[in-house]
Fold these 4 entries.
Entry 1:
Amino acid sequence: MKIVRRLTQLAFLVLVIVGVFIVNGHCERWCPLGGVEALYSYVTNGTMTCSLGVANFFILGAVLLMTLLLRRAFCGYVCPIGAISEWVYDLGRALGMKRRQVPYVLDRSLALLKYAVLAFILYITWTSGELLFRAADPCYALISRHGKDITIWAYVVSGAVVLGSLFVMVPFCRWLCPLAAIFTPFSRIAPTRVHRDEATCVDCGICQRVCPMNIKVDQVRQVTASRCTACLDCVSACPKLADGALWWGLPKGWGGRLPQVAILVVILACIGAAVAATYAFPLPSFVQSRGDAPAETASVSLEVVGVTCRGSSSDLVDRWLGRDDDYALAGYVKVETWPNPTVARVRVTFDPSRTTAEKVRQAIVMPYYDFLGGSLEVSPFEIQGYRPAVDDL
């Protein structure tokens, strides 16, 4: 059982590394925590926090569904921080380092810290509109390309997580992970769980000792703790496994035992559905309107270089499509953007009785003349495949 989980963890970690450093993908937009961080600004004003996208919402939904079915299986099979932390712990045992057993009461008290971490992250993100937590995020230290947007604190926290993991099982996952705080109410009601047969159990306590989340498996008939990651380490370590002392699955009236492969099937199905939904329903991550919509509208879709985040999207709307010089647009205008580090999709809806698609293009790329200051400002945006007429320059 453990080898299957280890291989699954390795596969997802390799996928992340390849996506970031070889494909140059923007993996931050596939982080489920990003869906929570972006929720407030998207609901209230139709904009996403910079560096995030609607894919964050789809992957968040998929992971919550996964948690609702399998408890915190995301933590035990998919999360790269959890995987690295477990491997470091195993390395510590291989090197002969003594495991530090945290008293149960202290362990449960420390676990409350994750709610404070989540509240702090959401507060600074929702009030600033920026991902300020990046500065100390160990996950971002893994999935970023280590440019100017990462600070020394991310490496300091990552080092502390690695150092702590040499002696304690998954300390970050148990006590500090903000995603764990989000998972708690969903995981608590999940129908799948580890079951213990009191008649065949010999009370050896091995299951509790190997549990990475310090759950007292040997003292309950069913593991209903929300922090269970469905790792099944307790089941595989049980000396009475053949006698059915421990098993994983649904309640007996719902179907009983399930194989570990069922976990993998659900994980892949949920993540696959999130990826498919992202491309099937490409929602814009920035939406802003000006004026009242007329009875009839027209729209133009453009491929624009320079729209990389919420900030540049706002600049496009306020500074260029909202300009007040000879290229000013009259009437209603609605702008939707799909920011991208290279070429972004931009859709502009307008009142066709007062402006045209050509005027929209001109407003985006033509230099802005400041009548009061007497200065000329070159547009930071470029529309692929479009060059204004010579007379317009």
Entry 2:
Amino acid sequence: MTGSAAAFGQDPAEASWLVPRLTGRWGHVGGVVPVGFEAYGRVLHPVRVEDQPPISWSAVAEAAGTQLHALAPWHRVAPRQPGADASWWQEGPDTGTLDPASLVDLLDVLRRHTTTAEDCWFCLWSGYGWIHGSPAVSLLRFQDGAGWAAQPPVPPAFPAEVLAPDRLVELPGRSHLLARGPLDAATRLADEVTTHGFGPQSPNLFWPSDRRWCVATEIDLDSTLVGGTGALISELLGHDRLEVFRVRPDDSLQDDGDRINRPAAP
């Protein structure tokens, strides 16, 4: 398969291997990315503030006096403090999508650890409002003297046949559209609606046809999980721009996984 675009509307049976390898434990690594890989990594989503370089979790932890570790959730790394004016307290990392620069860095590593980079599979959560268009989503724009004004209706992002129930991949608690294309298509998979219009949305799950690895970005989590070979995870851990920790399938990314940064007493 060649080309740069991903073709949606694929047979969901192509993703049937995922379900037996997901534990169903929400908030745990193995409930988000399939079990059975040699090693796993957690890629932290950086904090993106307009007109500023990306802010790492380690920089935030140092400023906040907290300890960054593999299972630390964002709100324990950056607890809100009275009077705090640091931009990362207001913004926080994106949930459910990996920013474009980090995604490109991740793809560059992933490409070296598969024999089928030109033939990959992508899952996109079907619940995004922008997928279905108006009235599920609408855009407003501020106009001087007139306040907020509605913009023209947003059309559906995909044809009706792509959104048909028999074309959806059903995973525990989530349904997804399925697409097929080269690895680079992950950067052009779709757009999400933001306060400024439309912005890139990374895949919620994707893997190559040889299934040497699988990447998952759960819509409610602020980090991306990667399952693959030990060599892949080792390379990610040594990346000079990605902030990555080694994790295990039974690790919890919820509050109970952080036994170091305890919440302050009421």
Entry 3:
Amino acid sequence: MEPDFFRIKPGVAFDLSALQTDFTDGFKHKDEAKQAFDKNVKKLAELQEKLYASDKYALLIILQGMDASGKDGVIKNVMKGVNPQGCSVVPFKQPSSEELDHDFLWRHQKALPSRGQIGIFNRSHYEEVIVVKVHPEFLKSQKLPEQLLHDNDFWKKRYQSINDWEQHLFENGIITLKFFLHVSKEEQKVRFLQRIEKPNKRWKFSMNDVTERSFWENYMNAYQEALAATSTANSPWYVIPADKKWFTRLAVSEIIINRLEALELDFPNPGQALEAELAEAKQILLNEEN
């Protein structure tokens, strides 16, 4: 699998509606992909241990997508081999009154992973240029000065704020990978019906999810513009086909591994002083009386 196949390249025009939601890269069935995915789960666990031990980089994974696109499943399955001590998940809901008293990036800055950690944003600051753009009435609660709300370049400036912030993260060792789980409207309907019909899935159902389907084209247009404006060399967007959950998870795991391997992570070299201490400690232990 070639990760760049899914990458939105900066400055290169693309049509989101033309990208396949059911693409599986030659895999016919999930059983064919299972071996590759299991291998990736194990490899990711190894890389996460090196990331944690080296304590130089952090990895921020951003998951965006329409309701029922599979974000929770990606987190649960792709990260199942990772040490919980080295991973955090933050699901962003509607902002609180405290959060609305700050700029739109404030709560996301607070939630960033520390060095050595993998942080996952289940939804993110991109809601501010997706949901808020589809529902501009939400801006009224953000207490912005009137002259800013009526700025013709409002959304362009938000994109630029995001790009500047993510570049700042990169320059401080936080690697950002952004995934848009591209599910079709038809598949979303199937998944919503499953949630309604299966007792163990009903807790996931929200009437608001169905209501938002009427804004589908608005959302696709908002994603199209946001992805084009904010996929950069250092903080790229990947559009992942999401109609087949098993392929979505395989593709995401492949891209994460590819990026971590590029960092050439390794366990820290203890140095001569510590080597001497280790040798001394070993000798003491070996000389202990049983």
Entry 4:
Amino acid sequence: MIFDLIIIGGGPAGMSAAIYAARARQKTLLIAGEFGGQMARKEVDIENYPGLGKISGLDLIARFKQHLELLAGQTKIGEVFALKKDGDIFKVSAGAEELQARAVIVATGAAPRLAGIPGEKEFLGKGVCYCAACDGPLFAKKDVAVIGGGNAAFEAALFLAKFADKIYVLERGNQLRADAANQEMLQKTGKARIILNARILRVEGSKFVEKLIYKDGNDPRGSEIELPAAGVFVKAGNLPAADFLGGLAELNERGEVKFDRQNNQTKTEGLFVAGDVSEVRFKQIVVAAGEGAKAALAAEAYLRQSQV
């Protein structure tokens, strides 16, 4: 059996693509290790998905799944470990099976890169966060810390400045990596304190985060310093799940899949990409869903043209 389209990944991009493909009556299979992607690991409410107000990550996943099931979309739980193209046909290795399709959408997402400090995993969803746009409003009139000194960290701090009383930005090196414009904008808020040469030791608290412990890398005594903080935002980058693509797609320096912004196609004809695994700039649920829809529409056009 050869599918018209195989979608790899069960996050908002993959499920959105599958919904569009099912509506187009394409013979489609969605393969996912789990449904929801990063939403499945989200323990706080999502407040920025249009039309839904406030909703939990798990409830939003359920709505995506219900919509797909309503359209009789075909799904399979499993991990994809290899993808190759033989002539005009893609071969997808998932578990012990080799599945075939005329087109493929890769929507495998990315996982936040962990800082690797004690307390980080224990307080995930209890003050330790990876998305300022998602969780920033929860820390209104509180003090927060941002780990990182690049543009992502400063963009997060700028967003947090709308809500938090004070923002500590901790950079391990002796100089910041963020653009000068971002640094200037953050300083103008009057809420930020920049800490260089910060060696993060651990996150502490009772039920929720209460403080971040670090030491000054230039201090030979190695004295511990406590920062009172209700939230700790880790901005150490993301790890896109693109290793299985081999030479079918080109990756940028961050390991994200490069693609044609007009139709979401990679360097390989018939291979499309959507969501956080791609080099799309903004890593948001609504953006991933939109990119999934766009990839599905582009794949439909590709399949239609290839039949002519």
